[in-house]
Specification:
2 domains, Growth Hormone, Chain: A, 79% helix, mainly alpha, single chain
Length: 270
Amino acid sequence: MLVVLYFHQLGYAPLEVALLFVFYEFFGVVTNLGGGLLAARLGLNATMQIGLGLQIVALAMLLVDPAHLSVLYVMAAQALSGIAKDLNKMAAKSSIKLLVPEGREGQLYRWVALLTGSKNALKGVGFFLGAVLLATLGFRGAVGAMAAGLAVVFAAGLLLLDSHLGKTSFKPKFRDLLSGSGPVNRLSAARFFLFGARDVWFVVALPVFLQAELGWSFMAVGAFLACWIFGYGAVQALAPRFTGRGRVPDGRSALVAALALAALPAAIAL
């Protein structure tokens, strides 16, 4: 939110703003591929702490004089941020699986839905806070405040979390990370396009359009996006209620839901 609004305010064209996120997403994909290898060797807690540390460094990179914030420099900072974000997300979601007893797929499904939904609800809060901080503290003040907040979380994680969580005696090779399952690979491809589409129109194009064409303030853009993200986070958290209590959804459930949901972006496009 901060990067999109601030760099658009500096006069960057929408395409240049979009380029700032190319490395963020690309290195997120790379991290998801290799993060499992790192987690198996170091443990989930260490992986998450590395992510937090990298995020603090990425934010610190944006605290330089605005004259030095070129497109390539910010792309590098965003690349580091993308790696950090996915290390954190992967470690947190994988930790849930270790905390739920074997054979309790329904319980695991409910916890993953709650974790994913609450994560996106908090991301909605973050969109709003980003706009508020930009309007009140300015770009460097907002980034500095975020870095300080993450430093507190980093210290708390070192003190409170199990340092051996997720660490295994088996040391997987890189080829062990590639799935031989056709359904898993098709789902991965679908998610790749899903997140690509979301970032093209929602993360970059929509806030720029609301500010440039409709004249919305930082606060208004942040509040609108926050409400939207909070709403879909709530839907994700309630997914087990929609798919039936006590029943784990299968491929047919996903197909029916996907076909129904595909009608919405098709209607928007029309």
